[in-house]
Design a protein that fits this description.
Order of helices and strands of chain A: HHHHHHHHHHH
Largest interface: A-B, 29 and 18 residues
Distance between the termini of chain B: 37 Å
Distance between the termini of chain A: 16 Å
Structural class of chain B: mainly alpha
Radius of gyration of chain A: 18 Å
Oligomer: heterodimer
Shape of chain A: globular
Number of strands of chain A: 0
Structural class of chain A: mainly alpha
Number of helices of chain A: 11
Strand content of chain B: 5-15%
Helix content of chain B: 55-70%
Radius of gyration of chain B: 13 Å
Largest sheet of chain B: 3 strands, mixed
Amino acid sequence: MISASPIFVIAFAGLLHASFQLGVALLTLLSGHSLGINRSFHKLMRLNIAYLFGATVITVLIFAALAYFALLSIGSNIQIAWLITAIINIVIGVSVIIFYYRRTKGTGLWIPDSMAQYLNKRVKKTDHTGEAFTLGAGSVLAETPFLIGPFAVAVLYTLTLEGAQLQFLSLLTYSLIALAPLVAIVSLVGGGHKISHIQKWREENKLFLQYCAGCGLVILGVFVLVDKVVGANI
Amino acid sequence: MNSYVVKSGGMHESEIFDPLKLHGSLMAACLAVRALEGEAHMVAQKITEKVMDWLETKTEVTSEDVRRVAALNLQTYQPEAAYIYETYKTML
């Protein structure tokens, strides 16, 4: 039964991807800045949608690139690939629990101060859709050290599916779930919600999100270990 | 009397307090929480005046001090904007 439901594992990996906050933080900042300098609603939405599009494109590209790389390189070493993936997820899960958020007021993340300042400046200078697109893509790339865990699990489970249609469905499932928070922020801002409400929600729930993501990754790693490494050897 | 503002981190030289700069950042915080432009301008004006009154007896303050006093006063007029103004730098 477990091995018959890889799509649920892929959906769970997508959910873990969704709980990482750098992309959401940047989009909130971008929206706040756009409203703060009195940009028109049309321009605000254009920038936000470009940002979302950038994050979507790079998510799909990373997924596809990892799948291609796995197809080319793994071959008969699939057991080792599963083992490494399981360990990566457990290690990242523990790291997230320990230091994903800074232990200060606000929603400061693990990224170095200089990088946070640079990103802040980039957000302020974002005026064209191309820049917003790059910012969205960059947010996913910058968080790759954490996202590589759920990405790897989703890709390997996708490769166990037979048929291009099912594999495409899994890519779609992963991307839709992973990008759902960004879609939610774009919709909320477009619907007239205040940035302060979104930011307060993020701050009040940051520990919950941190522990969910961390524990989720550990659980996912252990699941992969049992399902594909230990289970395959019994 | 001109008050000098020491930038956070102490890496830059101190500069003369610029009320327009403070007004701009306060107005941006108000607009970010969807306050109307007139209201945002009025609130930013009031807070800037209050900060200038506070600066009257001081020769040198840090930018963090200015920010803290402005946020405290903004809390009275626009609590939502005060929240954004305070947490803007810690969103990332």
